[in-house]
Amino acid sequence: MDVDIWAWVGDTQRQLHEAGNTGLAMAIGDVPAQALEGRYAQLDVLAPAIAQQAENLRLPWVEFYARYWHLIGRVGDRAQGTVAIADAEALVEFTKREDVRECPAVPGAVVALAVAQANADGPGYAAERLAALSALDVEPDSLAFAAVAEHYVAALVDAGRVDEAIAHAETAVAALGGAGREASWELGAASARALLAAGRTEDALTALDAATGFKPDDPVAKEHREGVLRALVLATLDRVQESVDALPDLDVVGDHPRVWVEWSHAIRALAGTAQITNTWQLGRVLKQWIDYFAMMGGYRARVELALVAGHLAVARQGLWQARLLADLAESASGELRNPGDVAERIAELRAAADKATALPAPGSEAELVGVFDAADGFNADPERWVGWLAPLSGRDVEATRRHTTTLGFLGYPARGADIYWTMLVESGDIENADPQDVAYLSGLLIEARQDERLEQVAERLPAAQRHLALGRLYTARERWEQAAAEGEAAATAGGGIEAARLWSAAVQQLGDNAKGAGILRDLLDSEEIEQQDVWRMVVMATAAEDWETVRLGAAKIGMPLKSSEGPIEEEMGLVRIILPAPDGSQRQVLSVRTGPATARLALPQPPGMEYNAGDLVVFEPQLLEPIPESPEEQENFVPPFAAVSMLRPGGYTSWFFDGAAPSQADWTEFNDVMAERGWPMWVYSDDNYTVTHPTSGEPLPGVFGWIAVPPDVSPVELDALLDDATERWVHPLAWLDLAKAVDVEVERHERITKEYGL
């Protein structure tokens, strides 16, 4: 985006503030950070909402801005392909409107479309990308120039024109220098990739070294992206230890689909060395990535990963997996617009699998199930067991159960479902099958997203199993009304505790906590019910304020309560309640536990939150962190729990204070005054916060925070108390928002704010 657009953002925010659209003004300032920092849950909600509001307010540039950053959040780090192309094309069309085309950020839409197309099938869309990018009239003095050049270089590489790509990158860097500007890190990386594709690996490393100090367009991603590319280049040069040192760990790259293919190629190059272990866990992760790109329409990435994963499987003698991956690559290649040499590479993988020798089984066929059950579940290699059990699977029920569930665990549920389908459905004996096998088959079909096959199977099952199978399906697909109906039907047909769990969970999702709790309460004396069922009942009953059922659950669990009727309001110690924040993050709020699943928030929260001190919330009584082992850590441990819902708001209002920190004695007295009245106060500033002395200009220790007052305390009363409590302080405290609300000494608070630089 051009620098002018950022000046426009600032001006637009100011205008929106002045017009009373403060929420929109704040939101547009945060959207780019959401896209670049990976706060996608918030971005996917907020950006469309901004775009809709901007459309309603007839602010087309704001609408474009929101849609653009939402698209970047999808096609950038998340590497969405065909699922994003239509939206990208629509955004390009939007830029052709008379009231949008002059926006300096318009080239960004064309770049975003090129990225989506590259994510789907880089070589297949190379010609379209080159045509669209070359049509942009972007000069070197524009901040869009480097991004356009970067993606033009990438498109040339995908088109097989690597020499032109190298030349274009060099020309673009020179043009930027001539305009007094430096290339972006991303343009430097594109140049390095072009050199690598040309076989000029040493030059690629030199280019990458030269780009290291360049300013990145995406600063959050630079470190791991540079590490992956450097590792690949070094591995190609056979500089193994340096490559391993540069390669980001799996737990780093696992959240960044954009680098998965490059990382996997680096791993393949290093897998034969002692520094990198080629394990079944790696194979499982790669299969998850392959499935991700199937959902996102990343067809080229899916094929590339399947081939890499297949060769890694051959290297560790997982030959069954290599053959399945070759089949997957062949199927996925049908989606490519330009398959190139994919068919030859698939044939190469098949030949490697056929040439390799499988590991011998650890026993005879008659012994295998017993050996499997006796194996160390922590150290056993499930990938090898799939190969060993395969000859028995489909013939021996016990072997089939173990084989197919292990297939599903490793990411191949469709293959497991096929085996069960042949054994149970095509044999015509599904009506008499063991319910355990029906459950296994249902789970595999659901995981493989073969809904029609599951519905077909369900029609042939006895009533309880039929409704359970459909209930599992609808629960997995979050079709709650249908899930509730099937759960109820399964319970009526004798489906037992599983039916009750399914039914109660579905009605809870539909908002009927009382009914959900009642379903489990009816089974409270059953031998089938487990403690987690009782806790689930307690949570739902608490949300419904059915205190009798909560007490029954507490008694079943063995949690003593002091009261015998009415709402449960006891002090059970401090807890940390985890709540959502508007920016998509989470906040930990110190609270007092008042019941088995309730807590009252103890800390004031800034305005804009949906909760505040004094609110009573329902929480899920499952610890989010393990209890520390050492007695010293246990003594200071405050258990964290996830909030479920608001039970009753306390009606508290928060007011901000800010200023120079008083003496310790004055601060202690101030805290005592607030505590005497029961008004929660919390300091949000840290020891590094300073304000400016109004005469000397020297920094002073500062303090800011919030005070929350209950609904029966007026703002006037709080203002008077603050005035009285701080009048003898050396430096005054400011509470400007409160002063404006009560219209008392507003000018004094404005002066304090200005003089102390608050």
From TrEMBL:
UniProt xrefs under InterPro entries: TPR-like_helical_dom_sf
A Pfam family the protein falls into: TPR_19
SUPFAM superfamilies referenced in this protein's UniProt entry, alphabetically: TPR-like
Superkingdom as given in the UniProt entry: Bacteria
Protein name per its UniProtKB record: Tetratricopeptide repeat protein
Species per Swiss-Prot/TrEMBL record: Streptosporangium vulgare
Lineage of source species: Bacteria, Bacillati, Actinomycetota, Actinomycetes, Streptosporangiales
